[in-house]
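ping. complex inputs:
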Amino acid sequence: MEHIRTTKVEQVKLIDRFSTSNKSLMGTLYLTATHLLFIDSSQKETWILHHHIAAVEKLALTTSGCPLVIQCKNFRVVHFIVPRERDCHDIYNSLLQLSKPASYDELYAFSYNPKQNESKRLQGWQLIDLAEEYKRMGVPDSNWQLSNANRDYEICDSYPRELYVPRTASKPVIVGSSKFRSKGRFPVLSYYHRDKEAAICRCSQPLSGFSARCLEDENMLHAISIANPAHHYMYVMDTRPKLNAMANRAAGKGYENEDNYANIRFQFVGIENIHVMRSSLQKLLEVSGTKALSVNSFLSGLENSGWLRHIKAVLDAAIFLAKAIAVENATVLVHCSDGWDRTSQVCSLGSLLLDSHYRTIKGFMVLIEKDWISFGHKFSDRCGQLDGDPKEISPVFTQFLEGVWHLTEQFPQAFEYNEAFLLQIHEHVHSCQFGNFLGNCQKEREELKLKEKTYSLWPFLLDEQKKYLNPLYNRDFSQKLVLLEPNTASFNFKFWRNMYHQFDRTMHPRQSVFNLIMTMSEQNKQLEKDFKELEAKMKQRNRQPEELLTKEPLQSVNPASPALKTSPCFKKEQPLLPMNDSIRTIEGSNTADNRYSEYMEELSKAEPAVVSLEYGVARMTC
Amino acid sequence: MEFAELIKTPRADNVVLHRPFYPAVEGTLCLTGHHLILSSRRQDNAEELWLLHSNIDSIEKRFVGSLGTIIIKCKDLRIIQLDIPGMEECLNIASSIEALSTLDSVTLMYPFFYRPMFEVVEDGWHSFLPEREFELLSSVTNEWRLSYVNKEFSVCPSYPPAVTVPKSIDDEALRRVATFRHGGRFPVLSYYHKKNGMVMMRSSQPLTGTNGRRCKEDSALINATLRAGKRGYIIDTRSLNVAQQARAKGGGFEQEVQYPQWRRIHKSVERYNILQESLIKLVEACNDQSHNMDRWLSKLEASNWLTHIKEILTAACLAAQCIDREGASVLVHGTEGTDSTLQITSLAQIILDPRCRTIRGFEALVEREWLQAGHPFQQRCAQSAYSNSKQKWESPVFFLFLDCVWQILRQFPCSFEFNEHFLIMLFEHAYASQFGTFLGNNESDRCKLKLPQKTMSLWSWVNRPQELSKFKNPLFEANSLVIWPSVAPQSLQLWEGVFLRWNRSSKFLDEAYEEMNNIIEYNKELQAKVNALRRQLAELETDDGMQESS
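pong. complex structure:
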C-alpha cells in the first residue's frame, strides 16, 4: 500500500486511558493494509480496523515519546506513546489516509475473503428477502399493491425499486406527489398491520413553503387514508421539532397544512436533527472518557450531553406510533426532513413494538434491511465510510440500537437476541467488512455491484447465532404480548455502559449473569441429549439380560456393546459433574484494574507530602 | 399507658385503599395498638393490608367535602392512600396513626408484643456471640484475647461486654486508653486477615485537643498489632480540615510524632444530616414520574447519593488494599466511630473475606460490626426519607452500607450466597420490625431492655429453611478470592429494587428472574439425572467385566 511507510514500530507503550499515573503496557505496533495491530509483552493482541478509526491525534512530544491517540467508531480509545517522533509521524499520516478512503473500492469489503465458495456467497445475499417480508405482513392485498413506478429509480433514486402503495393511488398521483416531496420521497408503505388493517407509511417533508399545495399529494394521502377501511382519519407524524419544521418553510419545504388534507391529524414529536445528535454523542464521549471522573461530573455531563433525552424522544415517538395503530387502528404517515434518519428510527422502533417477528434474530435483520438499508438511510455518509463532509456523520443508527437495548432491558424475555447481537451489528455497520451497509442507497449499492463483489453480514451472524441468543427468550411471551408498552419515565433510561465502554473492561461487572445463564442453557440442551442417549442405552441393557439368555452368540455383534465396553475409561474423559467453575470465573478482579489501586502505588513511594488521589477527592498527609 | 386511649375510632367502614400497582380496594379499616389493617369483604381475604405503625414515616390529610383522604408515607418508601368517609372519623384515625407511629417508649414497640407463629429452631439471640467469633479467631492466631473490661458497660457505654484486643495489653491499659478516646471507644479488633495475619482495628478519634495531649498506652495498644519494622495505616474518615477543627472541641487525630509507625490517610465520608438530606432528595426525585430527562438527571445528581456510595466504597477499598496488597495493618476511625467507621470496616470485610458473603457470615458481620459495635440504630432509623420534622439523629448510614453491598453484589453476582431480597429485608427491618434485633442504640440498651428475653430475634426467623430459600442467590458459588469492585461512576447504579420499587411495575423483570431460576434448577436436575444414569451404566459395565473375567 502506498500509504504505509512504516510497518513495524517497537517499544511502543499502550497507556491505560483512565489512569492518571500513566500506567502502560510495552509492545510492538504493526501496520497492515487493513489493520493496526498492537502486541504487548504478554502476547495479547489488540486489532484495530482502519475503517473503525474515527479520529487520530498526535499530541505534543513528551520526554518518553510521541503520544498518538486513536478514537474508534466502536468507542474504543487507544493511547500510544511512540518513542521516535518520526515513526509516530509516519504512522499518523498513514492512518489518516487509511482511515479515510477516497473511494468505495478501497473499503475492506472488497478485499475481505472469508474463503467461501461463490454459490454460498450468493445464497448469503438471498437470506433476507424483502418481498417475502411484505408477503408475511399481508401485502399485496385488496388495498395495497406493488408499484412499478420506481422500477428503474426514475422517480426517487434513494428509494428501493419495489414500493408498496395504495391500490387507489394512480401513477400520475404517485409522480405528482413525489414532485411535491423532498428528494422525491413520496409516501409509501413501511409496515402493514394485518389485524388492524392499519399501516405505517413513510415519506419526506412536503415542498409546501408558506402556501404551496399539490393536489396529487393530497390525493396520495387520501388514498393511504382510505386504504384503512376501518378508519376515517390518519395521523401525520412530523418527527421534527415544530420550530425546525417551520424554518424549513422559508426554504420552500415544510409540513402538511391540516386544512388542505382531508382527515389528517397532524403531530410534531420533536426529535432533534443529525447535527444536534452528533454533538450530543461527542459531549457524551467527552464526559465518559474523562479521567478521575466524579459521580456528579458524570451525571451533569450526561445531562448536558442531552443523549438520554434524545433516546427518550425517539422511543416516545415510536410508542406514539405503535399506539395509534394498536389502540386506535389508525394509519400513520411518518416523515422528517428527508425521511431517512428520524423517520427510519421511528418506523423501525414502532414496528418492533408492534410485531414480535422483529424481536427474533432473523426478523431484526429484516427490519434493518427494510427500514434502514432499502429505504436509503445514508449509512456511508452517517458512518463516514469515505473521506467526506464530517457534518454528514451522525449516530442515528446507534440511537436506534440503543432504543432497542432499552426495550430489552425492560422486557428481558421478549427478544430472541441479546445485547451482544446489537453490539456486533454496530461493529459491522462501521467495519465496512461486509457489503450490506456500504453506500447510501440501493441504487448506489447496485452500481457498486456489492452482491457480486462482497459478502453479506447476515449469514455470518446467523452461523454464530448461538452467541446472540437470549437464554431467557420466551416465544409465547412474545406472542401473547401484542404490543410492547415500555415505561418511558426518565428514571428508566440508563447510560449504555456496554456500548460506550465496551472496551473498558474494568468498568464492567466481573461476573456476568448473562453469560452464565447462556452457558447453562446451552449445557441443558447437551444434557438433554446425553440423558436421552443414556436412557436408550439403559433400555437396551435392560432388554439384554433376556437376549443374553436366548441369543447369547449374538451379543458380540450387538452394536451397543462395543461402545459400552469402552466405557470404563469414560470416567477419565468425562467428569461425572460437568465443571461449572469455568463459567463462573471472575474476570480480572484485582486492584490493578481499579483506579483506587493507584493510591497505593503512590503511597508505596517515599513520603510525598500531599498526594492527590485519582478517584475521589481524598488527600493524604503524613 | 393503654393503646385504647390513643385509638378514638377503632374501625371505619367503606374505606378505599389506593396503592401502587393494585386496583383500589374498598373495605373495613381497623386500628390496633401496632397495626393498621384494611380488609375487604371479599371471601378470599386476598386484599388485606397489614401495616405496622412503626413503618409509618409521615402522614398527610386532605378533605374534599366530607370525604377525607390520608396519605401514608412509609419508611420502606411506599406511599399509600386511604379514602375515609366522614370528617370526624378521618381526623380521629389520622391523629391515632400519628400518635401510634411516634410512640416515644421503646417498650411499647411491637417487638415486645409480638408472639411468633413459628417454631424457633435456633434462638438468634445466641447465634453470634462474641465468644463464638473469638473461638474462630483463636484457631488461627494466639496474639489476641477477649477482654471483659467493659462487662458493666462502664468503660465504654457503646461497646459490648466482650471485645477483642491484643494479648499484650491488659485491662488497666484499656481503661486508660478509653479515657483518651471519644466515648471511651478504644481501638479493638475488627477483622483478622488470615492470608497474611494483618488486622483491621476500629476506634473513635483520640482526644488530643489543641495542646496535643498524648497517651502512651494508646500508641502501645495499636503498635502491638504491628510486625517488627512494619508500618500501619490509619484511615481517618474525616477530611484533614475537619479533623483539625475537631481539636478545638477536644478531639483530634494521631500526630505523626507520637505515632511514627503509622501513616494517616484522610478519606472523607459524609455523615449524619448530610446523608439524611441526600436520601430525602433522592427519594423525592424517584417519586416524581413527570420529571423530564434533564430534571431527573439533575435531581439525581443534586441528591449526591451515588457520590456518597462512591466515597464509602473507595474508602473501604483503600482499607482492604492496605491489608491485602500492602500487607499492613489498619486502624479506622472518624469522630465517634459508630457510623462511617463501621461502613468502612464492614465493607472492607465483604471485599476481603469470602465468609462475609455467605448468609450466615453476613448476619455475623451485621451483628459484630453494627449491632455489637454500637451503631445507634434507634436514633439513625427513627425516621426515613419522608421525615419532615427536623430531628438531628436520623441518618441512613446502615442503608448506605446495604446499598454499597448491593453495588458489589451487582459486580460479582455469583460471589454472594444471598440475593437482593435479603438486603431489602434487612433495610425494612432496620426501620420497622416485629423483631427486637434493631431496637436500642447499643448492647447496653439491649441489655437494659432485656431484649433477648422479651423479644424475638430477626435471625431466629430468617434462618429457618422456609425463609432462607427466598434469600438464596441461585448463582452462588463460593469464591475464596478478594473481590475488588469498580468505583467508576459508570459502574455505579441506582438501587432500583429499593428506590423504584413502588414507582414502576417489575412484573417483566420478576418473570425473567423466575425464568433464570428455572434454567438453573433444570440444569441441576438434568445433571443429577445424567450422573445417576452414568453411574448405573458404569456399575452394569463392571458387572459385565466381572462376568467376562469369571
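The two ends of chain A are 58 Å apart (CA to CA).
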